[in-house]
Amino acid sequence: MTLQPSLLERAHSFRQTDRWIFSTMLFSACLSLLAAFVLAVDAIHLAKDPQIALPCNINEVINCSAVARSWQAGLFGFPNAFLGLMAEPVVITIAVASLAGVRFPRAFEQ
User: Per the database record, which ranges form the Vitamin K epoxide reductase domain (predicted)?
Assistant: First the structure.
């Protein structure tokens, strides 16, 4: 008679695998890409009209328009959200490739 692992044991073993890590990586990267897209759209709206009130403004204290106009929001001369639009697809590609079973060179993994 074979003993079947309990649900808790299977969940624990799943969390210890690469599949869990890369699934979490894929989910997080997709959320980050969505956030970068929203911030990039807001940056374009601010470029068109610097006095616009963005939907994320809650009050005078919590005001994302003021943050988006600060020098830190465009450190390299363009909105930082564009860096997210470039970098997150790379992370998504690595996560999908890893979930598909691609074995990367050792130098890449270190």
Answer: 25-108
